[in-house]
Amino acid sequence: MDELIPLSNTNLGRLPSTVRAPQYDRTKLTPGIIHIGLGNFHRAHQAWYLHRLFDAGLNHDWAILGAGVRSYDKDQRDKLLAQDCLTTLIELAPARSSAEIIGSMIDYIPIENGNTALIERMADPAIRIVSLTVTEGGYYIDPVTKAFDQTHPDIEHDAKNPDRPLTVFGALVAALARRKASGSGPFTGLSCDNLQGNGHILQQAVVSLASMSNPALARWIEEECSFPNSMVDCIVPATGMKEIDLARSFGVDDAAPVTHEPFRQWVIEDDFCAGRPDWEKCGATFTGNVQTHETMKIRVLNAGHQLLANAGEILSIETISEAMAHPLIGAFFRKTAIQEIAPHVAPVPEMTAEAYIDLIAARFANPAIIDTTRRVAFDGSSRHTGFLLPTLREALAADTPVDGLALAEAIWARMCYGIREDGSVISPNDPNWDALKNAAIQAKSDPAVWLAQHNIYGRLANDLRFKTVFERRLRQIWREGLEAALKDYLVSEATAYRASHGMDARLS
């Protein structure tokens, strides 16, 4: 490509014919949504659905205002404002790639101490939905009890200083207080994070925080606001120079392009107190049964990501597709998913658990998606507790196989030691990294130390069946290496267990 076109409103008409441009007049868009946590996933997923509605000539009063509550969001804001909040989306299919420019976001709210500008914009009655992607670990919930952590210093600050909050939830409470006082009405809070019952969790955070300083406001929020559950799905790698260069190969100079797989899914509970866009007209699914879709996705895709990424990190495998192609790691994912996870996943109308595992395996294997094991392994303390341990608890209660799930926890413990099998260092990759690494170091000689992390395992540490398998597998990994442990799992205990219980012992 000879000429690079800087991404901006004025240059939309100059884009190469191979790049799909917005089919609507962005100057006619007005805001209806504020999205907090404007990372790659939001732009490849929720923002795309809205963009396609705009392309169809619909819902032009529902444009997005971007927002953040942390200082590190300022760099992203600067990049996006410099290009009029436009984003190049690059779809990476195994055989080809394609690009389009999305324009559903029209501004980015200033990021400042006390979140004054964000609160003011959320208090505007034109804003009818506030959506969030703040990561699974960003909801201040105890991973064992699932209760809101009212003792966290950030939360205590917001309860004492409701007009100058630190957290996104404090900002939501402050904005809703203004709307209640002005009579401008509630808005819908829409979580788009990978949490089972994410709407309920968001409601718990907002109402619990409000109750600490203003019980009357908390009751009003609970009665008037909506917090629909939703399930979101699209594999979206992080952006680096490779992705920026890929955008340039299409002739577009974009400081923050986004790559994504050729698959999206959005399943939403239809509970919006102040209206919503017609997302069903561009592929979203509205249902009263989000939980079943959620469970399938979280327990297969998100849990499967941890099975691949943790093992890949230990063996110095850089990407998820390479981990899936590894004969032992890929087989570990498939066997654990089919024999230990699928029995605890109900089918949805269009998909059985087994068919979904095949779909996820194909998506994981897509070599065009350069999704690093490091990115996927980030924040294991939230992801293991949210994605893997619920299935483990159900399997133990049902007396079904758990050897692969226990091995997955042993692999995570080995990864948190911080040194790969080739001697290279694994850099800190979890908000609780120091505590995890300390436990992992001690667990090398005493595996029970790892399970003694009550904030992660709770009563699971006392389950003899899980504890026995976990400790043996972690000792085996340290003694013989990860590949030996994987080989042993693929031919041994789960198969023997199934045979002893009169079950089909065939390896899948």
From TrEMBL:
Record bears the keyword Lipid metabolism: no
The record's keywords, sorted A to Z, are: Oxidoreductase
Q: Where is the Mannitol dehydrogenase C-terminal domain?
A: 289-478
Q: Does the keyword Oxidoreductase apply?
A: yes
* Residue ranges of every copy of the Mannitol dehydrogenase N-terminal domain listed in the record: 32-281
Quote the PANTHER family the UniProt record gives: MANNITOL DEHYDROGENASE 2-RELATED, MANNITOL DEHYDROGENASE DSF1-RELATED
Q: What is this protein called?
A: Mannitol 2-dehydrogenase
